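Aim 2 progress update. The chain analyzed this quarter is reproduced below.
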Amino acid sequence: MSAIVGQVQIRRIDTGAEVAACFPLMHQLRPHLADADEFVARWRRQADVGYRLAGLWDDGRLMALAGYRLQDNLVHGLHFYVDDLVTDAQARSGGYGHALMDWLKAEARELSCHKLVLDTPLTNVLGHRFYYRNGLLAAALRFNVVLDQ
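Predicted structure tokens:
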């Protein structure tokens, strides 16, 4: 893994304009999102129930992005759930994902969570390797079915 160079900043993304500017990177992870307007609309709805975005910039360029929220359920209790985690395809293996994951873990601890949880497709083999290297372990399978409307 190569080292991060430049001026790195990790911060929360709190306005619609900031979210819209993140669309090209989020679109790499969520290609079904049609455009920045749809992304912002979905962010606003989810933010109303606790969803937050944080980004990592290197010399002013957005390199990694995470969407997360606090959740509470009978399985995990109060936990930090990562909905979205993406590093720019041109910058992978540059340490940005690791730095953002460390920030997410620190944020979870700050919020008194004892567990960070995320889901990933079984086909995301490169992602699995990244998660294992960052201390996350596969602990469950999630099943779902698409329901006809």
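The two ends are 46 Å apart (CA to CA). The domain at 8-133 is CATH 3.40.630.30 (Aminopeptidase). These observations will guide the mutagenesis experiments scheduled for the next reporting period.
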